[in-house]
Amino acid sequence: MTFPFKIPQLGEGLVGARVVTLWKHAGEFVERDEPLLEIETDKAIMSLESPVEGEIEEWLVNVEDDAEVGATVCRIRTTQQNKTEIPHQELPDAAELAPESAPVAAPTPHAIRNGMVSPRGRALARGEGLSADELEQLSQENGRVSVEDFNAHLQQKTRQVAPGEPFTERALSPRQARLATYLERAWREVVPAILEIEISWDGIESEVKRRRAAHGTEEKPLKVTPLHVIAWAICHSMREHPRFCSTWKSGGILREWRHVNIGFAVALEADELAVAVVSRAETMNFETFSQATRREVASIRAGEKSHGEAQFLISDLSRAGIVSAVPLVVPPATAILFVGTPYDTPVRTPTDGVRWEKRARLVLTCDHRLVNGVGAATFLRTLQQALPPSPAA
User: Cα torsion at 281, 2, 247, 124 (round to 10°)?
Assistant: First the structure.
């Protein structure tokens, strides 16, 4: 049977939403209660979960599209009995998710009631601080206000304001604006617990060489990096510590996932940031995992959207000259690990001598609401044991 997934009622006065993220590709399997897509209304960003399990047959919307309440956005092929209506879904309270500091530009009731300002338009209005009078004027001039109308209006305002002023103003890119919203939410909600360990980078590099020799050939070398080795150890450590395979839901609900989804922070042009997600990592061998990591990172850099919800994030600055930093957990992830730039340090030998070894720092920040200090320390100890030791040890 085919189940039509529709945009549910979102609240009084809300007629639609903007599609922010599609967590699944067509052809992928989705479990019941697994996040399916992320949408943005004029009040908040929220995740919609699948009420059934099955295979995504097709998406009827793309990222950045506007979807009205009741519109079918995808079809799911399922063995369950087909339903004509989506079961009730508990959505986050929009008032709780809305950034406290975000100025709400409220269009006049006429514009909202008639659907003349799209959810994406209302989001742009909030970010730019457009007044209700300006929105009403745009609606009267253009009918349903499009993104192009907003951009033209903002450019006109910039031309009017910039002359004689020592600055210019411009809107953040949609990607950076979404990231800013997530970071503000993380700063308000997450209670961070921060721990740090030191690992042998010489051991990591030796393992990279061993993996390349074991899995690659001269015709088809395996492009293994230190990040792949560390992420692979994280994957297996997460399986031993299920709390790190969990995510936080509002109301004190803990969602325990059956699979390991690892996210990689990807730096983009103009100092923008995105996350590439490798889903179901525990089902892969090392070679497949390494290839999947490279493929997902490359797709993000090519401008594609991430699919999947990561429980654990990795921020790799091992080539940036940064030895130590404190990463920020961004929900729904439970933890994030910073990988620092390796450095040479003296190490005592068993005979009380001294030798030089290349080492690196790993800094773990986890959500204290889910993981306590002992649990985080135990996870790091498991991770340290899963990583290769120094060749000289």
Answer: 110
